[in-house]
Design brief:
Blueprint lengths: L2 E6 L2 H7 L2 H13 L2 E2 H8 L3 H13 L3 E3 L10 E4 L1 E6 L1 H4 L3 H27 L6 H6 L11 H22 L38
Parallel strand pairs: 1-5
Antiparallel strand pairs: 2-4, 3-4
């Protein structure tokens, strides 16, 4: 990929990806690499005509592009241009379409998180002891200012990029979904923290 983050500022651009099939197509290209409309159609139970149309729409708004390394002249392979999509909720809230698109994508993030957890739990026995010990979730209640929370997010993102570079050639490395979520609220309404073993609880997923 040529760029890591696509910083979206136009609500129309965010709306273009806030679509049930398009967001899945983009996620597949980011996770698994270039593919044709036919391959993606088979994967998601859609016609190649449908996936081709939605890929062209994603390309129109800069999310995907034709893969310069085409394996077959008769096939058009697509690739994701960026690894991540970022936007400002404050900017998106200025228009109805921006608010709707941002809300859709936030819900999609929750859906992906739930799907990842459920998939891992179904396949837990197939993973090594090292992976089952390190994978998981933890949470804690802390007092933070908005500025500190923003700084924390930036710090964690930088650490993850460094770790990705360090482990890129490690044969034991796998693609790992890391979700960072932080929301203010009253402590009285919070759930009791569900923690992994103490040795792993500092991972901060």
């Amino acid at each position: 990929m040529d760029h890591e983050v696509f910083q979206v500022r136009d609500p129309r651009t965010l709306k273009a990806v806030a679509h049930p099939l398009r967001v899945r197509l983009l996620g597949a290209l980011r996770m698994d690499g270039p593919a044709t409309a036919t391959e993606l159609g088979t994967r998601f139970g859609e016609s190649s005509g449908s996936t081709s149309y939605h890929l062209r729409q994603l390309a129109r708004y800069g999310f995907v592009e034709q893969d310069p390394d085409q394996r077959d002249r008769r096939e058009r392979r697509w690739r994701a241009v960026h690894m991540l999509t970022s936007w400002s909720d404050a900017e998106m809230s200025a228009t109805a379409e921006g608010r709707e698109a941002a809300a859709f994508l936030r819900r999609r993030q929750l859906e992906v998180l739930i799907a990842r957890v459920e998939s891992f739990e179904r396949e837990r026995e197939s993973w090594s002891q090292e992976w089952t010990d390190s994978a998981g979730m933890s949470d804690m209640l802390v007092r933070l200012s908005p500025a500190t929370l923003t700084s924390l997010y930036e710090t964690v993102s930088a650490l993850l990029r460094e770790a990705d570079d360090r482990d890129r050639e490690d044969p034991d490395a796998r693609v790992v979904s890391v979700f960072f979520a932080a929301y203010p609220g009253s402590a009285e309404g919070a759930l009791e923290p569900a923690r992994r073993p103490a040795a792993d609880a500092e991972a901060g997923e």
